[in-house]
TrEMBL record:
InterPro entries: DNA/RNA_pol_sf (IPR043502), Endo/exonu/phosph_ase_sf (IPR036691), Endo/exonuclease/phosphatase (IPR005135), RdDP_mobile_element (IPR052560), RNaseH-like_sf (IPR012337), RNaseH_domain (IPR002156), RNaseH_sf (IPR036397), RT_dom (IPR000477). Residues 746-886 form the RNase H type-1 domain. Keywords: Nucleotidyltransferase, RNA-directed DNA polymerase, Transferase. It comes from Amphibalanus amphitrite (Striped barnacle). This is RNA-directed DNA polymerase from mobile element jockey. It comes from the Eukaryota. One of its GO terms (cellular component) is DNA polymerase complex. One of its GO terms (molecular function) is nucleic acid binding. Gene3D superfamilies: Endonuclease/exonuclease/phosphatase, Ribonuclease H-like superfamily/Ribonuclease H.
Length: 1039
């Protein structure tokens, strides 16, 4: 394949599956300082030998023409020239190039072919456009070199602008001796304004046609069986999909685009429909790539492999690292080789000529004779008798030696992979076997056993006393190992002293095990956390920073794409893939981190914030964090500590962690900044108001036993309607679909509509329901859902209370009934549908207890209905739920999910409030003449893509809102691009900052009035509608 105008740079990677890519990128653009456009690439199918030739195919003074010469080693050796002659616009002031094109340097061998976009026209290949200078030069070269134009006269380009004119700037040339071997035609695929060109070259002799005595009768073929066999064969040997994001929607959009392209080729009047279809296809492809990345990114975590992430990015983006040119020919002397075996022999011959020990033939021969004689010398051990140590070993000896080998996975020459294969129960059995390893440890010594890794520790005010107790525990471990014939790896055993006293931190523990001293280590890694002597976590922060910096490269990679550059996608990727490294167990260790350690992590996060928002490096850190919608680690560590405290306060009574939460067990605080996770968490929970309400314990074990976990077949979940509806379907359409869906279910004997309500989705929850029996309303149920709750919890609570009521009105004498529960909470039904054994909330577990009891005798249908669509029962339930939200909430327990959400909001508000009192920027740095936080308000800053803005528009908005924008004279002066910071259109040297530019500049008053409705809006009014800000910038030419 020959591609022109690739527009690639040295920073770009490009690959098509199954092809070698040879590129020549453009080195100069229209202006001397730019390098945009141009470039070409030749793609050669893997397995085809080729040679890249260095012969110059352009004039020495020609700096604009791109040419790439490659020789294909086919049965018919063909020298191909891929050439691109850019159009030079002499009338344009922005084009400083000079046209020096000449085809005199083109190859003119009998086996040469030229494939190019010459942007020249001649009657020989383009009857639609008048001949120009380039066309005249090429035509003269063709006549002098005995070459032939392969073009059939069909156009190869259609203008993307009206009137969609056709032309032929692309040519294919070959020597006249190849005339009967070349076929030329145009295709319709690809969204480019150029048509793809298919050139077929017959390289072998034409096969002689023979009359066949018999031929297959396709009418008698069993095509259904044939299709079945083919499908089975394809399914049995699946191939890797090189385009993972290609969907049926993309296929349909591309098919429609190609069909309209063919119509526009025949009738240019249809060009508008073709261009519209091309834009739609490009948009569909971008959306498919975005969805593919979002699906992959939703599964990212701390343990995600970085290499796999990069592979996925390259697969979605259609690029990959440069591949080896295995099929390139190797030239040795005057001979070229293409086979691997021939290349290996050539390397051996070249190497052997310079690798002899002595470089002279006679000495080389003498050394060879000496080595041969040495090999003939009898063995010093057995004298070639094959006895003693040289005798063949037995099978028993081989088995014994293999058992002593260390575990390895790579197979040797005997094809034996020395790897122990065990049963899946082996780890569990091993844990049971060593479960009593700590039974004889002395009081005051604690231990943690994770598989075969054992940690022993002791806390005491006296280091010597703690050391004595740990030594006794080691003696007990030594006795246990001797009794059960277990081997403890002393090489991996280390000891460490943790203390906040600098004098004690320099001490080394004197411990012994099996008569040998235990190695002392100043740091140790336990469950992924690096602990140092003074518990400053300095080493752990360095490890985390290195991981986050490596993973932040992924953000920068996808920020330059069309499918992953939205701030929401970048933020989600950062949270799941990069910040997860710092979040691991951060509730325990980060509250004790020093300010210097926090700054190390903040530096990495600010880098990610700039990638997400597009803000410049000088942006104030508080504004930068708010623009990216990310809490700084100084606030996040408080949030994580509070969440950890809330989690452990709900553990079972007697849990060791709960003892730490008691005031009498709090450790002493020696450092001002180290308040500990428990003390910090309790203070935040109290400030947030959680201590005034009971806490709901965790559901440790489901009420339904595992052997009864499959739901009854009479309990049915319906999460769809009779026909799918778009998200923005009108209420009437949604109501009609819901009523048709309910009519399709069995006629209910008992019907209930449930709903949950929560103020702002988080506070003062209420659960409501209305119950009908035989079509008559019998009950309206109201229940408080908690002072702090969620709509999801309130919905589940409404289902629970409704089921309890239905159970209370039914008796054993009632026949089998049809019970119908309708809710507008799709998430609740989806969660309940996972089965009773998979529920983690107590209220969901209680719902399933009622469902199982009712399902033993009755049929229960749980149907989703769209909310606020005019469905009568749902509207009544919604009103009842709002009434229930006004009931007293004091006795309703707070769930962990509600507490976690409350703590997050509380810490975020606390941090935003603290930024209002932060010190202002120095006078030497550009800053807004207003308070940034007064402009954006106390709430979250919405990301650009959630406002419907493009990446470029969102970046411009964020920079302008923070005051660090190239659109402002004050910022350009700060970076040295302007001599002063005064507004260029105002007198008196008025500083052009964001407030002046957006609210009071006289030069922009008229545009400001047209866009914002008044000439002097406040900054808060301006930024309240970001889309109008973007329109304002566009009309002024600042975007």
């Amino acid at each position: 394949m020959f591609l022109q105008e690739t527009k690639l740079t040295s920073k770009d990677t490009f690959r098509i599956h199954g092809y070698h890519v040879i590129r020549r990128d453009r080195t100069r653009g229209r202006r001397a300082e730019t390098t945009f456009g141009g470039g070409e690439a030749t793609l050669i199918r893997e397995g085809t030998p080729f040679t890249v030739l260095d012969s110059r195919c352009t004039a020495p003074e020609d700096e604009t023409t791109d040419a790439l010469l490659v020789e294909l080693q086919c049965p018919l050796r063909i020298k191909t020239l891929n050439v691109y002659v850019p159009p030079i616009r002499a009338s344009s002031m922005s084009d400083t190039r000079t046209q020096h094109f000449t085809p005199d340097q083109w190859p003119h061998d009998t086996n040469a072919m030229i494939f190019g976009d010459v942007n020249g026209h001649s009657a020989a290949w383009d009857p639609l456009v008048e001949e120009d200078a380039i066309g005249e030069q090429v035509q003269e070269w063709i006549s002098q070199r005995d070459f032939v134009v392969a073009n059939s006269g069909a156009p190869t380009r259609q203008s993307p602008a009206p009137p969609y004119a056709l032309s032929t700037p692309d040519i294919t040339l070959h020597h006249s001796s190849l005339t009967n071997r070349v076929e030329w035609e145009t295709l319709t695929a690809l969204p480019s304004d150029h048509f793809p060109i298919l050139v077929k070259v017959r390289v072998g002799k034409r096969k002689k046609e023979e009359k066949r005595k018999t031929k297959p009768s396709f009418k008698k073929a069993d095509w259904a069986l044939f299709e079945k066999i083919i499908e089975e064969k394809l399914a049995a040997s699946p191939e890797r999909d090189p385009v993972p994001w290609w969907t049926e929607e993309v296929d349909e959009a591309v098919r429609r685009r190609d069909e309209l392209r063919a119509q526009a080729k025949a009738d240019p009047a249809a060009g508008a429909a073709w261009r519209e279809a091309a834009k739609e296809a490009s948009l569909t492809i971008t959306k498919a790539r975005q969805e593919s990345w979002r699906t992959f990114a939703s599964g990212l975590s701390l343990r995600s492999d970085v290499g796999q992430v990069w592979s996925t990015i390259r697969a979605i983006d259609g690029r990959s690292a440069t591949t080896r040119r295995d099929d390139a020919t190797l030239r040795v002397g005057n001979r070229r080789t293409s086979k691997d075996s021939e290349k290996a022999d050539a390397f051996m011959r070249v190497y052997s000529a310079v690798s002899h020990l002595p470089p002279r033939v006679r000495e080389d021969r003498r050394v060879t004779h000496e080595l041969t004689d040495f090999l003939r010398t009898p063995c010093t051990q057995c004298g070639h008798s094959r006895r003693g140590c040289c005798s063949p070993f037995s099978e028993a000896e081989m088995t014994e030696e293999l058992s002593r080998l260390p575990a390895r996975k790579a197979a040797g020459l005997d094809r034996i992979a020395n790897e122990m294969l065990g049963a899946v129960t082996s780890p569990a059995l091993f844990n049971l076997f060593i479960n009593d390893i700590t039974d004889d440890f002395p009081p005051g010594v604690s231990a943690s056993l994770y598989a075969d890794d054992l940690a022993i520790w002791c806390s005491d005010r006296d280091v010597s006393a703690a050391e004595t107790k740990v030594q006794r525990a080691l003696d007990s471990l030594e006795e246990w190992a001797r009794r059960w014939k277990m081997v403890v790896s002393l090489e991996k055993t280390t000891s460490t002293i943790f203390t906040l006293d600098p004098a004690e931190a320099r001490r080394e523990a004197a411990l012994h095990f099996q008569g040998q001293p235990v190695k002392f280590s100043p740091t140790t890694t336990f469950l992924g956390i690096t602990l140092d002597r003074s518990l400053t976590f300095t080493g752990h922060v360095k490890t985390i920073k290195a991981k986050m910096l490596q993973r932040n490269n992924v953000l920068r990679a996808i920020s330059g794409t069309t499918w992953g550059c939205s701030p929401s996608d970048l933020r989600s990727t950062y949270l799941a893939f990069s910040r997860a490294c710092a979040d691991y167990a951060a509730g325990a260790w980060m509250p004790g981190l020093s300010e210097s350690g926090l700054r190390e992590l903040e530096t990495v996060q600010r880098q990610a914030c700039r990638t997400i928002t597009g803000c410049v490096r000088s942006t104030p850190v508080d504004a930068l964090a708010r623009e990216a919608d990310l809490l700084p680690f100084s606030a996040r560590r408080r949030q994580l500590a509070a969440v950890a405290m809330e989690r452990h306060s709900r553990d079972l009574p007697g849990d060791p962690v709960q003892r730490i939460l008691l005031p009498e067990n709090r450790p002493r605080q020696r450092l001002r900044y180290d308040r500990g996770w428990a003390r910090t968490g309790q203070e935040i929970s109290k400030d947030a108001g959680l201590d005034d309400f009971p806490r709901e314990p965790f559901l440790v074990v489901a009420s339904t036993p595992p052997w009864e976990s499959p739901p009854p077949p009479t309990v049915l979940f319906h999460t769809g309607l009779v026909r799918p509806l778009p998200q923005n379907a009108p209420a009437e359409q949604r109501r009609t679909a819901a009523e048709e869906t309910l009519a399709g279910l069995p006629n209910p004997d008992v019907q209930a509509f449930t709903d949950g309500s929560a103020t702002a989705g988080t506070e003062r929850g209420g659960a409501g329901a209305v119950v009908y029996r035989s079509g008559r309303e019998v009950k309206r149920i109201r229940a408080p859902a908690g002072r702090f709750t969620s709509s999801y919890t309130a919905e589940l609570l409404a289902l629970r209370e409704t089921l309890k009521y239905i159970e209370s009105i039914l008796t054993d004498q009632d026949p089998a009934l049809n019970i119908q529960l309708c809710t507008d909470s799709l998430s609740s039904l989806m969660r309940l549908r996972e089965g009773p054994a998979n529920q983690t909330e107590r209220v969901a577990d209680q719902v399933w207890l009622s469902l199982r009891r009712l399902g033993r005798r009755h049929r229960v249908d749980l149907q989703w209905v769209p909310g606020h669509a005019g469905v009568a029962g749902n509207e009544i339930a919604d009103a009842v739920a709002r009434e229930a939200a006004e009931l007293p909430q004091d006795g309703t327990p707070i769930t962990f999910a509600a507490a976690k959400s409350l703590l997050k909001r509380h810490v975020s508000r606390e941090w935003v409030e603290s930024t209002r009192h932060s010190r202002p920027a120095p006078a030497t740095r550009p800053h807004l003449s207003h308070d940034y936080h007064d402009v954006v308000g106390p709430g979250r800053v919405r990301l650009a893509d959630r406002l419907g803005l493009s990446r470029r528009e969102g970046t411009a908005l964020a920079r302008l809102r923070t005051g660090h924008s190239p659109a402002l004279q004050a910022y350009r002066h700060f970076i040295g691009a302007e001599e002063d910071d005064g507004c260029p259109t105002c007198d008196g040297g008025v500083r052009e900052d964001a407030e002046h530019f957006l609210t009071s500049c006289p030069a922009t008053a008229r545009v400001r009035h047209d866009v914002f409705g008044r000439e002097d809006p406040t900054l808060r009014e301006v930024f309240a509608d970001p889309c109008r800000v973007i329109e304002f910038l566009r009309r002024l030419g600042r975007l």
